[in-house]
Design brief:
This protein is of the alpha/beta class. Helix content is about 35%, strand content about 15%. The strands form three sheets. Strands 9-8-7-10-11 form a five-stranded parallel β-sheet. A four-stranded parallel β-sheet has the order 2-1-5-6, with helices on both faces. It has a two-stranded parallel sheet with strand order 3-4. The N and C termini lie close together (about 10 Å). The structure holds phosphoric acid mono(formamide)ester.
Length: about 325
């Protein structure tokens, strides 16, 4: 694997999950692979889990790790070609990317949707420029449309906790005061559609995701109906995708918050969320603190997903 940006890059999921199990049981077995190799992690946006787990994954593999926060200490970057750079941006991304590539062997990039242009977001203009101009393998640490390291960790977690071979997994929209990208729900849908599960998406009208990501999943507008019999409840907020509301909050209906009453409709489901989460908007205190909440083991599995992916990239160098 050279680049990792979608579920398609990881190969057959059963094999990927087997590799992840090995990495989890033997976290320091491949230290020689990363010897004298440098991982550069570039953040255009904030992070807690991705920053720490990916750094830990690189260290477990014996790599040197450099972290660059573009918005804290680096020059402000121009990303559009053809712009007369007479404003506050001192450097163009077309020089910055190959320079970054010259200092490392592998690059991770976090670059969220900016909600300025749907075409730019859904064409992944920042991530794709790293792939085109860095000269290095590139992996996504959450891009505009997908968060594959998160989805891989989510799948690993479901595999660890599922009690039936084909569990019912329900991804539910939940309210949030700010406009959040569709990367996590898009990606989760993509991975669940590729996995062996009964996958249902529920959200209020107007929050339909890009059909490319929904795929063959069942969409149910009645949240209570969707939750019936669920084995896993995956909560997430996202802003509207459909025009003319792309990137907007069109509804903050608190009846969609995942509460104990909602969880009572399920098959004693586990609760999942990628974090960070706004309590008592997305999920009530009692649900996230309950023994059925998987948010901490799910976050811990971010090391496993990152290390499995990094290992495959190192093997391809
Ligand atoms: N889930 C996730 O990616 O968390 P961070 O934004 O803190 O990295």
């Amino acid at each position: 694997m050279r680049n990792f940006t979608t579920v398609n890059d990881i190969g057959p999921l059963a094999e990927a999950l087997e590799k992840a199990r090995y990495v989890k049981q033997n976290p320091f077995a491949d230290q020689a692979l990363g010897h004298n190799k440098t991982l550069l992690m570039v953040f255009f946006n904030s992070s807690l889990r991705t920053r720490l787990s990916t750094q830990k994954a690189g260290l477990n593999l014996g790599m040197n790790v450099i972290v660059l926060d573009i918005n804290q200490g680096a020059w402000k970057l121009e990303t559009e070609r053809g712009v007369i750079m007479d404003g506050d941006k001192s450097e163009h991304i077309l020089e910055a990317i190959p320079v970054m590539g010259s200092y490392c062997d592998v690059i991770g990039v976090r670059s969220f949707a900016r909600f300025e242009s749907k075409a730019d977001d859904y064409n992944e203009v920042i991530l794709n420029q790293f792939i085109k101009y860095s000269g290095r393998p590139v992996f996504s640490m959450e891009a505009a449309t997908r968060h594959p390291l998160q989805s891989f960790a989510d799948l690993i977690t479901i595999e660890e906790y599922k009690k039936t071979s084909r569990p019912k997994v329900v991804m539910t929209w939940a309210p949030h005061p700010k406009a959040l990208p569709q990367a996590v729900p898009n990606s989760f849908a993509e991975w669940m559609n590729a996995a062996d599960c009964d996958f249902v998406i529920t959200h209020p009208e107007g929050y339909e995701l890009d059909p490319k990501f929904v795929g063959g999943a069942r969409v149910e507008y009645d949240q209570d109906k969707a939750l019936e019999g669920a084995d896993f409840v995956y909560a997430k907020n996202w802003a509207a995708y459909a025009d003319p509301n792309y990137g907007k909050v069109i509804n903050t209906d608190r009846s969609w918050t995942v509460t104990a009453e909602k969880m009572a409709l399920t098959n004693n489901a586990y609760f999942m969320h990628c974090l960070p989460v706004r309590r008592n908007m997305i999920v009530s205190d009692d649900v996230i603190e309950s023994p059925r909440s998987l948010v901490i083991p799910e976050a811990a599995n971010r090391v496993v997903s990152a290390q499995t992916v990094l290992k495959e990239i190192l093997l391809s160098l």
